[in-house]
């Protein structure tokens, strides 16, 4: 027996009519990607020494994204968003306008470029590449569309260099966030990173914890996975570890104004995490006495989560799971352009109380990023 | 004299820092000598019912920022032996939720044998031999106490999830 279905809104909104059918209020998209199409694209933003460094080595691109998003995986790019002429998806601002900014009629979209430069091990080259990506984002994207804001990238292996880069470009009015790969050599809550987060807070920047990262260790909590599905489906564990670290190590006592966005990490694992943390904190708080309130309360205050991907399930269960968040302020809409999560936004909105929908589609992000 | 007051032992038998559990009025009461002051708690953790009398007293540890500990040996918490929940033995309040989660405190008095001689019932009856009625005895009062609030308690309602 075939059950009637509602209109095919699972498909990405490709025109204004589809968007209006789904949601007539304002929209802020907190996770759209800019992909560096080639090393040569960055050469105008690199000193000659590093241009030569790349060319002498025939260096084409960082290794990280190749393993995170295999080029032929159906998750890497929606078919409608893959350029017919073979160009790199999401690699220029005109494509972004056509695919997301115009049809979605966004007030603002936040541009994230996970280029994978954290897989570069030479420290000075790493610093130079981070600077080049940031300058490219400002010049080729922010300066070309006033709806865009961006996350800056950092040389994520060296706190001193991270702070220098924050001080160099963190005050640019279009830069609202710092992109932090969720997989790292050391957990972000460790004390050596406190000054980095203090610098972010001083510059009013959000810390954007995002899918990806090239850690020294294995990409799972226990050894190497065999398949892409393992990497993808289990990535939330890295987010769980990072949030647990930031909370338990007392980062928010050191940087009480710090805001952290969880991007492309899902969010319905959060209630289970919160329950466990709150429960264990009651009996183990003596070892982390700076943690003076239930951890989930701290997360509700200092963290926001992008809606992509959504671990939806049947609508009645999704309603319950959203209710368990016990906050209407936690979620922020994202297309995660150009990736393909096949999230059913119509279902997500229908599972929320009405008062939560406008917050999720725009207002939470507007206040979080002070847009 | 209310019949809800029970003579449970000799004060001299419970030294500073010691604790004991006594059965009175059909329930187990944990009695603590904290620096010469006596406190009683229902010997049952409000969480899962562990014997609080088996818990340890540990110094209160707080920190305004990571690594800067205030290890306060002047103030101790009674720590439940099962899950480590900390209670202020003077009020029964838990550390993590002083409003919503508390042990049940009972008043423990020290009274002289002369006062309580002949008092009923309790696990211990004051000896009526003339010499021993001079001793001090511990008396548990099972009447409900007015809720107290610890000085340091956070007053905000905490969500326990």
From TrEMBL, chain A:
Keywords associated with the record: Lyase
SUPFAM superfamilies found in the cross-reference section: Metallo-dependent hydrolases (SSF51556)
Gene3D superfamilies: Metal-dependent hydrolases
Translocase is among the record's keywords: no
Amidohydrolase-related domain location: 30-371
UniProt KW Nucleotidyltransferase keyword: no
InterPro entries hit by this protein: ACMSD (IPR032465), Amidohydro-rel (IPR006680), Metal_Hydrolase (IPR032466)
Region (Disordered): 62-88
Protein name (Swiss-Prot/TrEMBL): Amidohydrolase
Organism in which the protein naturally occurs: Rhodococcus pseudokoreensis
